[in-house]
Amino acid sequence: MTDVASQSSAPDDTRPTLTNRQGHPVYDNQNQRTVGERGPATLENYQFLEKISHFDRERIPERVVHARGTTAYGYFEAYGSFGDEPIAKYTRAKLFQEKGKRTDLAIRFSTVAGGRDSSESARDPRGFAVKFYTEDGNWDLVGNNLGVFFIRDAIKFPDFIHSQKPDPVTFEAGVANRAFDFFSQTPEAMHMVMLVFSPRGTPASYRTMQGFGVNTYKWVNAAGETVLVKYHWLPKQGVKSWTAADAAAVQAQTLGAHTKDLYDAIEAGDFPEWELNVQVMEDHDHPELDFDPLDDTKVWPEEIFPLRPIGKMVLDRNVTDNFAENEQIAFGTGVLVDGLDFSDDKMLVGRTFSYSDTQRYRVGPNYLQLPVNRPKAPVATNQQGGQMSYGRDNVGANPHVNYEPSITGGLKEATYPTHDEQGPVINGRLTRKRISRTNDYKQAGERYLLSDQWEKDDLVANLVGALQQCDRPIQERMVWHFLMVEDELGLRVGEGLGITPDDVRHLPPLQSQTLDEEEQARLANLG
Ligand code: HEM
Question: Known InterPro entries for this protein (predicted)?
Answer without folding.
Answer: Catalase, Catalase_AS, Catalase_clade1/3, Catalase_core, Catalase_haem_BS, Catalase_immune_responsive, Catalase_sf
